[in-house]
């Protein structure tokens, strides 16, 4: 247990704060992305929960945000380290999964797909698309930070990992 | 370096063989998923490379398959372990990303999305959709195996990780 130094703790806490600072705007921006547009006499509206993948994105980012917040306090107690390292891997996979899925669907929204007969929707809902792009960007930053956290976990986990071959 | 036993090596090699056995059919099934259908006098065809996400899936699975194959031989030399552990994390993220993105797009293909005006295509292309489902399932198995490999890496990486708190 002594192998986790104060410096290790400070670095992981800072990384988790950055992850928290990226996940919260990704949730907020996705949730407030709704837009209404009038075509002739009909009003069409776009909002994130019309697409199941975008709802998954919000849930995944919220789990990552909540986990980052809780683990900042938990990580002060070294005995939780083993569980935290496994949960770091799980949260990294969750973020990777949700950002990738959301980006794939967002790209269909932007470019459409002529083969499948899916028209792009960003012409009608440009604000919605801009907000989704912003949310995905923040989610991507959070994912990168969590990948760094996992690599840093590997670094502090083992003297073996850092020893000369 | 002595901390990696013969048993550790055999278990990781077996896991990598299972991952290889899952990624290869996922590539093959996705690549041969093409289907043509005639509607009135027009012939429509569906194939994986009509959708950029499905192409990304094939590339990601091919990288994972190639990596699994190469690393089975590399892992016999212990000095590569540190690089292999980092690459295991990268390949796990790549598999998670590609399977999630492909599943998100495949679900639009299956269910469509009325809000976005995207019609489902599985009515016209049922063979294509079945094959994509098969490929995603194999990709999902490969992802689970790689998550197990990363967790097993953590297990063998450090005596600290296994010590009592």
Structure description:
The structure is a homodimer of 165-residue chains. By secondary structure, the first copy, chain A, is mainly alpha-helical. Chain A has one domain (6-29, 51-162). Chain A is built from five helices and two strands, in the order αββαααα. In chain A, strands 1-2 form a two-stranded antiparallel ribbon. At the A-B interface, helix 3, helix 4 and helix 5 of A face helix 3, helix 4 and helix 5 of B. Chains A, B: It holds the Pfam family CASP_dom. Chains A, B: It is found in: Cell membrane. Chains A, B: Keywords: Cell membrane, Membrane, Transmembrane, Transmembrane helix. Chains A, B: Homodimer and heterodimers.
Condensed summary:
Chain A is mainly alpha-helical and 165 residues long. In chain A, 70% of the residues lie in helices and 6% in strands.
C-alpha geometry of chain A: elongated
The percent range for helix content of chain A is over 70%
Element order of chain A: H for helix, E for strand: HEEHHHH
The largest sheet of chain A, given as strand count, sense and whether it forms a barrel, is: 2 strands, antiparallel
Largest interface: A-B, 46 and 45 residues
- Based on helices, strands and strand pairing, what is the structural class of chain A? mainly alpha
Structure annotation, total helices of chain A: 5
What is the strand arrangement across the widest sheet of chain A?
1-2
Proportion of residues in extended strands of chain A? 5-15%
Indicate how many domains the architecture of chain A comprises. Answer: 1
What is the averaged pLDDT score of chain A? Answer: 89
Amino- and carboxy-terminal Cα gap of chain A: 24 Å
Quaternary state of this entry equals homodimer
SS elements, strand count of chain A = 2
In angstroms, what is the radius of gyration of chain A?
19 Å
Low-confidence sequence ranges of chain A? none
């Amino acid at each position: 247990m002594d192998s986790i130094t104060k410096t290790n703790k400070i670095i992981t806490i800072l990384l988790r704060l950055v992850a928290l600072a990226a996940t919260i705007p990704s949730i907020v921006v996705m949730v407030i992305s709704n837009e209404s547009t009038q075509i002739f006499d009909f009003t069409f509206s776009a909002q994130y929960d019309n697409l199941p993948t975008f709802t998954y994105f919000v849930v995944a980012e919220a789990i990552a945000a909540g986990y980052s917040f809780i683990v900042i306090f938990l990580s002060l107690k070294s005995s939780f380290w083993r569980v935290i390292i496994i949960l770091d891997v799980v949260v990294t996979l969750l973020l990777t999964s949700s950002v990738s899925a959301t980006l794939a669907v967002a790209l269909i929204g932007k470019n459409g797909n002529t083969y499948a007969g899916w028209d792009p929707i960003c012409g009608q809902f440009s604000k919605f698309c801009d907000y989704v792009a912003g949310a995905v960007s923040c989610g991507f930053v959070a994912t990168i930070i969590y990948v760094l956290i996992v690599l840093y976990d590997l670094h502090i986990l083992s003297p073996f990992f850092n020893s000369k071959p």
